[in-house]
Amino acid sequence: MTDVVSDTKAQEVPVDEVLDDALIQQLMARAKDGGMKLAGEGGLLQQLTKKLLESALEGEITDHLGHENGERAEDGRRENYRNGHRGKTVTTEIGTVEIEVPRDRAGTFEPMMVKKRQKRLAGVDEMVLSLSAKGLTHGEISAHLAEVYGANVSKQTISTITDSVVAGMTEWQNRPLDAVYPVVFIDCVNVKIREGQVANRPVYMAVAVTAEGHRDILGLWVGDGGEGAKYWLQVLTEIKNRGAADVLMLVCDGLTGLPDAVNAVWPATIVQTCVVHLLRNSFKYCGRQDWEKIARGLKPVYTAPTEEVALERFVEFAEAWGKKYPAIVRLWESSWSEFVPFLRFDVEIRRIVCTTNAIESINARIRKAVRARGHFPTEQAALKCVYLAVMSLDPTGTGRRRWAIRWKPALQAFDITFDGRLSAARR
Q1: Fewer beta carbons under 10 A from the terminal one: N or C of the chain?
Q2: Most confident of 38-47, 60-69, 285-294
Q3: Which of residues 387 and 147 earns the better pLDDT score?
Q4: Where is 95: in which H helix or E strand?
Q5: Neighbour tally for 255: CB within 10 Å
Q6: CA-CA distance, 353 to 356, in Å (whole number)?
Q7: Nearest-CA neighbor of 91 among 123, 59, 115, 60?
Q8: Coil, strand, or helix at residue 97?
Q9: Which phi and psi (to 5°) does residue 413 adopt?
């Protein structure tokens, strides 16, 4: 039993080789005949967990002492031997379990299955982190564990569990990056932080596509005030200092001054404004009754085959709507130099870089996680919540495979368009 349960370095044994179907059926039948329920207090799962843990601990102390319980020494003397048990309450994924932990006379036994002063099995910590990543508050997590599993886990304990990710978050935030990224998407989402008074603070995020077509979240940064190009300059400089020497294209939401900040870090990078953001901002300057007409009028502009054709279509749009909505015309004129770069590329590249949807879906997950909290007491608490949310984005790996398939044609086009700068990163 000890070899199967407690040896974490051993090769994982298939479940079918450990469990016996006939034995399971026999246990279920006996539990049913005895009126024992499957889950809950005193249930079959709880009792099996108790027996499994106690059996593993007995195996561990046998290995530690070098002899079985009741086995006599050849000379009748031993330096160390069993010294009874002590009761312990352990919180597990199926609820609270009372177990008996064996002791030795010398006090040198260090159990591994349930360590000294350990009150929770690892699965409970993982469950708490998963629920926190989905946006549940500490009070809601505590109530959920009590209601569903009968486990009493305090809000302070839950806070301690979530604090355990801080070291990993710091390591992740400072990890080395790839030398070249074909595309980097940047955006920010506001969270409420209470420092003296509750105020919106931007959380900056950069999401890259690697040379293999995988998504890579480069980092998270909490800014001081509203989103600004000056702070983005600090973020991009940090990304470069971590090893990202070249970025082929950077897609953003059209923030004033951002192209200059990007080119100060990577002079050869093409800055592309998100077309979806341009359209959304355009709707702010017109009545709702005209949204559909404005969208139809602008579509020939951003779907034009060349920049020259796009300019012709924009002139037609300005003549039709400029008198009624001059602010929309000024918006597109001021963003024109950052809007048109993708028009020079093949359709595979256009389809990918004309929008920040790649990062908007992540922002939606973050907003869902932070909305339930209302506001955070500290900057670190907010960053911890956002980090847990982005780390739980793709638990099955399906998204990673989908990204690779989606980006394969675009990456081939990138390599041709950017004169081999991308293929140099693969070597």
Answers
A1: C
A2: 285-294
A3: 387
A4: strand 95-104
A5: 18
A6: 7
A7: 123
A8: strand
A9: -65, -40
In eight-state DSSP terms, residue 179 is S
Please report, for residues 86, 118, 132, 147, the alpha-carbon distance to residue 150 in angstroms, rounded to integers and kept in the order given: 23, 18, 19, 6
- In the three-class reduction of DSSP (H, G, I as helix; E, B as strand; rest coil), residue 245 is classed as coil
Q: How far apart are CA 172 and CA 181, in angstroms?
A: 18
Q: Judging by DSSP bridges, how do beta strands 95-104 and 82-92 pair with one another?
A: antiparallel
- pLDDT over 80 at 159, yes or no: no
Amino acid at 392: S
Contact 86, 101 (CB under 8 A): yes
Please name every residue paired with 220 in a beta bridge, in sequence order, or none if there are none: 205
Task: Please count the CA atoms within 13 angstroms of the CA of 360 that sit on its side-chain side.
Answer: 11
Q: Are strands 197-209 and 180-195 parallel, antiparallel or unpaired?
A: antiparallel
pTM: 0.66
Q: How far apart are CA 152 and CA 9, in angstroms?
A: 31
Collect contacts of 369-374 with beta carbons under 8 A, ≥24 apart: 369/133, 369/134, 369/135, 370/135, 370/189, 370/191, 370/192, 371/135, 372/135, 372/136, 372/137, 372/140, 373/135, 373/137, 374/192
Rounded to whole angstroms, the Cα distance separating 267 from 261 reads 10
Return the closest-CA partner of residue 380 out of 235, 165, 120, 226: 165
* Contact (Cβ atoms closer than 8 angstroms) between residue 153 and residue 132: no
Can you tell me whether residue 194 is helix, strand or coil? strand
Q: What single letter denotes the amino acid at residue 148?
A: V
Mean pLDDT across the stretch 130-137?
70
pLDDT(4) > 50: no
* Tokens representing residue 18 in the block: 């450990």
- Give, in order, the Cα–Cα distances in Å from 175 to each of 154, 172, 248, 268, 402: 33, 5, 21, 24, 25
Cα gap 66→373, rounded to integer Å: 53
How many Å apart are CA 146 and CA 141, to the nearest integer?
Answer: 9
User: Which residues have a Cβ under 8 Å from the Cβ of 125 and sit 6 or more positions away?
Assistant: 161, 164
